[in-house]
Specification:
The protein is α/β, with parallel strands linked by helices. It is built from 28 helices and 23 strands. Strands 6-7-5-8-9-4-10 form a 7-stranded parallel β-sheet, with helices on both faces. A 6-stranded parallel β-sheet has the order 11-16-15-12-14-13. A 4-stranded mixed β-sheet has the order 19-18-21-20. The longest helix is centred in the first third of the chain and has 27 residues.
Length: 717
């Protein structure tokens, strides 16, 4: 009998034995980077064993129903005590299952499926010679390490299976690869850096040349540090020290020195990911940088060569430089779905830069750091924890994996780049703040909530006719970008520019104010706000004050603890912006939160089991979410809409490309707020997850989505 794996539209057939061997070769090549090539090869050979059944062959020829073809191969591996392989094969279509317990009967767990009656596949053993199983001893005894090993094998198998199938179904016409080399990227970056240093030394005012020189020193330190052996590093550079390009320089040189194959840049917010990706594209070329986050997914309906290539690359991170988010990176790591997991093996043998690492969410801090530890220890990965305010993360890593600082003169760096003076000024009412802002031509104030920002801005614009701005997530990303560009231009031109903002302006946004007000919050947030003051060193620290104040309302519950700890540090340290103060603050914060740093007990799930299951992959995938609140999006029709986005959305079109472009005009609100907007007829719900604003008066050109309904009823907090 001729056993077939796939049939193309032209009725060409792929022999099952060819598919198994092709998948095995690909999986083996992927797994070689972490010395698991032989086991991955075995898994690839057996993954579709069930397709040898008479029932499946009838189905693929159109005369039967689709049978389970994954369990047979998993049972073969399980009988040989290849438990990691059994997990991978069992889940290669439906997702990694929970391990379950020995008493499980037929069901979704691995133990349950090992008791499932499968269709016989006698021809499998006649066509496929399965190598002997040699257990991998590297992860013996550590359940979490075993779980990561299973994930990696699963990822290799899934990606190999997808790629081999894709290759056949498209008759080998697959638009992948064709990227530049790290040698070429390094030449481009180094040439760009030298040209900028040379140009700045000529055009910058003499008072600013010290900053240019210091940034060059940081860059050189990162290049030199790249020669060190792979492992865990920190890069602690005060705001304005050029850490983005310096970290890229480290990554490129380190990859070249040690034969690493990919650079992954992980960023906390989509609001700054686009600008970072563009910086890299400008240096190494558009096609060599993959930007992968919720608003940057290529549309499956687009058929241009570049769109197809980028879509394919995003599926499995098949690109030399990947710029992504914390959410995409860590949720993929703990996910169990094939579509999310197929890229995980690409992390092995890579350099990972975690930018603004202080923004890792405390409720999930331990699982995130444990993932980093595992990747560094077992998968030939170098990780760099990059920030201006380095948290005391060393306590969470084992003694033999303490991070190495790439700029060891961090104290000296801090003193050299100290460009502001922080002062506590006590309580200030909104009226007092508005009065102060009105008297200063260029000033930024950052408050804790969108409501506070809106109310303070209302007071300010009642006093100042122009040159005052509001920034919050109640504005669309497109609107915020336009306002930010206008703010930067007015600051550059020396024009009046008074800005009221939420914390969205703190991390990674390049603005330079002569003075800043910051409502009390956690210390790292305050210092990030201070990074928007005197960023380019045009003034002395004494001339660049950052005033920290207490507002009329208590800090929101989410930051109340951090605020209390800030005041403890402020009382204990004369210079509460120093590296020592930051370290003391984060140590106290971690001590205070304790078990809450793994709120959902993700690690316990693998070490102790969860709800009667060992290795609860499926349960953890549902529980691990970096963003807790399921926001709803409101599309705000733009005044100028030449692409007809609004019309297409109203017509019911919802392609990924269209939604991605629409995302530039969306505001996120809480589910309750969304429901009230819909009930009041202000928003037309599209699918329960998002809607279209139908009441234009609710979008204030200066403030964004209005906080008040026309009856005076508050919609948002």
């Amino acid at each position: 009998m001729r056993h077939v794996a796939h049939i193309r539209e032209d009725q060409s057939e792929q022999l099952l034995s060819e598919h198994l061997k092709g998948t095995a070769r690909r999986a083996s090549n992927f797994a070689k980077v972490f010395d698991a090539g032989e086991e991955a090869y075995r898994i690839g050979l057996v993954h579709d064993q069930g397709k040898y059944s008479k029932e499946f062959q009838e189905y693929i020829r159109g005369t039967g129903i689709s049978p389970d073809h994954a369990t047979a191969g998993a049972q073969t591996l399980f009988a040989q005590e290849d438990f990691a392989g059994a997990f991978a094969v069992a889940g290669h279509h439906g997702g990694l299952p929970d391990g379950g317990a020995k008493g499980d009967t037929e069901g979704p767990t691995l133990m349950g499926r090992m008791k499932k009656k499968v269709f016989p596949c006698p021809d499998f053993h006649r066509e496929i010679s399965l190598p002997d199983f040699l257990p991998d001893g590297r992860v013996k005894g550590d359940p979490f390490a075993q779980s990561v090993y299973i994930r990696m094998l699963f990822s290799c198998l899934v990606d190999a299976d997808f790629l081999d199938t894709e290759w056949f179904m498209k008759d080998g016409q697959v638009d992948r690869g064709d990227y530049g080399s790290f040698d070429f990227f390094w030449e481009c970056l180094h040439r760009d850096h030298k040209n900028k240093v040379r140009a700045n030394s000529k055009i910058l005012p003499r008072r600013n040349r010290w900053l240019n020189s210091l940034r060059n020193e940081i860059y050189d330190a990162c290049v030199k540090g790249a020669e060190q052996s792979p492992g865990l590093f920190t890069l602690t550079v005060p705001t304005g020290g050029g850490k983005t390009l310096s970290s890229l320089a480290f990554a490129l040189r380190h990859a070249l020195c040690h034969g690493l194959t990919r650079i992954i840049y992980v960023i906390p917010y989509t609001s700054i990911i686009e600008q970072t990706a563009q910086v890299f594209r400008d240096i190494v070329g558009e096609q060599n940088v993959l930007e992968h986050h919720s608003q940057a997914v290529a549309d499956s309906g687009e058929d241009s060569p570049e769109a197809v290539r980028r879509r394919l690359a995003s599926e499995n991170w098949d690109a030399p430089i990947v710029v992504t988010t914390n959410v995409q990176f860590f949720e993929s790591f703990y996910d169990n779905r094939p579509s999310r997991c197929r890229k995980v093996h690409r992390i092995a043998n890579s350099v990972i830069i975690f930018d603004e690492v202080q923004e890792l969410p405390p409720p999930h801090l331990i699982p995130c750091l444990k993932a980093i530890e595992s990747l560094v220890r077992d998968y030939r990965t170098t990780a760099v924890l990059c920030t201006a305010t380095q948290p005391a993360f060393d306590r969470f890593f084992p003694a033999d994996m303490q991070p190495r600082e790439l700029c060891p003169q961090s104290r000296e760096l801090y003193l050299s780049l100290q460009r502001t003076t922080l002062r506590w000024i006590g309580k200030r009412t909104p009226d007092q703040l508005a009065e102060r802002l009105a008297k200063r031509e260029q000033v930024l104030v950052i408050v804790n909530t969108r409501k506070e920002a809106g109310e303070l801005f209302d007071r300010l614009r009642a006093q100042i006719p122009e040159g005052r701005y509001h920034l919050s997530t109640l504005m669309t990303p497109e609107h915020r970008q336009i306002v930010l560009e206008e703010i930067r231009q007015r600051l550059k031109d020396g024009l009046p520019c008074r800005v009221v903002s939420t914390s969205l302006l703190e991390a990674g946004v390049d603005v330079d104010f002569p003075r800043v007000y910051r409502e009390e919050a956690g210390l790292t947030s305050i210092l990030q706000a201070a990074g928007r003051c005197n960023r380019e060193g045009n003034r002395s620290a004494a001339q660049s004050p950052v005033w920290v104040f207490r507002g009329e309302t208590a800090p929101p519950p989410l930051i109340a603890q951090q605020t209390a700890l800030f005041h403890e540090i402020r009382s204990a340290f004369a210079d509460w912006s120093s590296p020592e103060a930051v370290r003391a603050y984060t140590q106290s914060l971690f001590d205070f939160k304790g078990d809450c740093l793994d709120r959902d007990r993700i690690l316990d799930a693998f070490y102790k089991g969860r709800r009667g299951c060992t290795f609860p992959f499926a349960q953890v995938a549902k529980e691990f979410r970096l963003i807790d609140v399921p926001a709803r999006s409101v599309f705000v029709p733009p005044e100028s809409d030449p692409d007809g986005i609004t019309e297409q959305l109203l017509a019911g079109l919802q392609t990924q490309s269209l939604l991605r472009r629409a995302g530039r005009h969306m505001v996120s609100v809480y589910p309750g707020h969304f429901r009230r907007l819909v009930e009041n007829g202000a928003v037309q719900a599209m699918d329960g997850e998002w809607g279209i604003l139908r009441e234009p008066s609710l979008y204030d050109p200066e403030k964004g989505l209005s906080l008040e309904w026309d009856e005076g009823q508050a919609l948002f907090v």
